[in-house]
């Protein structure tokens, strides 16, 4: 029977239906859990990029605000939907005053696209905080751009130096090796073995800040 | 062959990496950190065990002409199960492993053991072979990543063990170091374990 013409086709069909069915059932049962985790992680990242400013305005500690998620997110964070602006943007509001903005930005790494959250001061010139949302870089190499030491280099740096420029509004930065000590505030440490990924982060920030400035120069968020 | 022989063969004598030179791509890619190596090893071991057992279970009904398609289907299904399970229950580990979970499908050890062992042997023997092959693979990965992480980052499993006096060896973080270390491992095993004479 195994040598007949139809047997292998029927056998293969049964196997495909069986395993696809198992996967479909398993995915259906896990789908909500996965989506909830992803949404929570995303919202917590938004909150944490603006938490210092919220904490200063409310005289609470950042840890208290993070611990109070999801209530604190609902209380302080609002999503904006500006006309024609093609990025997700959020604002932190305390007592009707905006204390920070947070943008979801996108770019390309070595192996694929990446996205990040960058919070800015209300004049959009200073990066307050920076967090990676998605990246497809090599674990242990390029993926190390998610490590705190790399991300914290971008905290409180004045990224926009030419707000009136129509060419490039951003500051120029020089990458130095991970083991070197920066000599000035324009030197940032790159991830060892991941030069292209490190450069891609700066490239993404530059391109996105120019896009944001292009928009805010003519319209309000 | 006894169960013990099957286990010893799969883990050491016919070790997938140093003897059969299978699964080299992942051995080179993930071994810069011990945690990545351990998780990859566990993922491959689980998939090996489950795929081996399933392939062995249906071996008498599987037509020869489509056996490799069936094996790939089964392996892919188990890898996706691992991926979904990690995303739903261990999201941090899933994130840490990134694209490597999906790449387990392309690991030649799985197809190698399915074709060479599971398709011809009983379910429990295939289970033992899966455990042994997975363990052998994990041991090699952990061995290489121990040296790479220690010299490349001064740490073991992310814990700093070498002080601030230590200068990290950048070459150890990059893929070429895994080539050198793997070659040295194979040389050492051939010389001292298999007693191969030059």
Explained architecture:
The complex is a heterodimer of chains A (about 220) and B (about 200). Chain A has about 220 residues and is of the alpha+beta class. Helices cover about 40% and strands about 20% of the residues of chain A. In chain A, the strands form 2 sheets. In chain A, strands 1-2-3-4-5-6 form a 6-stranded antiparallel β-sheet. A two-stranded parallel ribbon of chain A has the order 7-8. In chain A, strand 1 and strand 2 form a beta hairpin. The radius of gyration of chain A is 23 Å and the shape is globular. The mean pLDDT of chain A is about 90. The mean pLDDT of chain B is about 90. Chain B is mainly alpha-helical and about 200 residues long. Chain B has a two-stranded antiparallel ribbon. Chain B has 10 helices and 2 strands; from the N terminus they run ααααααααββαα. The interface between A and B is medium-sized, with 31 and 34 residues.
């Amino acid at each position: 029977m195994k040598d007949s013409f139809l047997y292998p086709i029927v056998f293969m069909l049964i196997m495909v239906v069986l395993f696809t069915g198992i996967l479909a059932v398993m995915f259906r049962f896990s789908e909500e859990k996965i989506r909830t985790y992803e949404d929570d992680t995303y919202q917590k990242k938004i909150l944490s990029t603006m938490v210092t400013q919220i904490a200063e305005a409310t005289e609470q500690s950042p840890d208290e605000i993070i611990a109070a998620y999801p209530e604190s997110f609902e209380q302080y964070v609002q999503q904006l939907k500006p006309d024609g602006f093609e990025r997700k943007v959020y604002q932190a509001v305390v007592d009707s005053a905006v204390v920070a903005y947070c943008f979801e930005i996108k770019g390309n790494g070595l192996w694929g696209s990446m996205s990040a959250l960058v919070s800015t001061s209300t004049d959009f010139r200073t990066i307050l905080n920076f967090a990676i949302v998605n990246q497809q870089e090599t674990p242990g190499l390029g993926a190390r751009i998610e490590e705190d030491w790399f991300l914290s280099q971008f905290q409180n740096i004045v990224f926009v130096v030419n707000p009136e420029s129509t060419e490039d509004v951003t500051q120029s930065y020089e990458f130095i090796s991970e083991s070197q000590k920066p000599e000035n505030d324009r030197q940032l440490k790159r991830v060892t073995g991941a030069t292209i990924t490190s450069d891609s982060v700066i490239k993404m920030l530059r391109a996105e800040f120019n896009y944001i400035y292009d928009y805010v120069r003519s319209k309000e968020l | 062959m006894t169960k013990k022989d099957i286990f010893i063969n799969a883990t050491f004598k016919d070790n997938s990496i140093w003897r059969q030179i299978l699964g080299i791509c992942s051995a080179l890619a993930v071994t810069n950190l011990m945690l990545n190596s351990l998780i990859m090893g566990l993922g491959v071991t689980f998939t090996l065990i489950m795929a081996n057992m399933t392939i062995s279970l249906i071996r008498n009904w599987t037509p020869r002409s489509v056996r490799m398609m069936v094996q790939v289907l089964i392996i892919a299904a188990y890898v996706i199960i691992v991926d979904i399970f990690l995303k739903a229950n261990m999201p941090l580990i899933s994130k840490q492993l990134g694209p490597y979970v999906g790449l387990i499908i392309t690991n030649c050890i799985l197809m190698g053991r399915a074709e060479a062992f599971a398709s011809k042997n009983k379910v429990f023997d295939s289970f033992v072979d899966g455990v042994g092959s997975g363990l052998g693979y994990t041991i090699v990965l952990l061995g290489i990543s121990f040296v790479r992480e220690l010299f490349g980052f001064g740490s073991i499993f992310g814990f700093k063990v070498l002080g601030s006096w230590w200068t990290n060896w950048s070459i150890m973080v990059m893929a070429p170091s895994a080539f050198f270390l793997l070659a040295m491992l194979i040389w050492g095993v051939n010389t001292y374990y298999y007693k191969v004479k030059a």
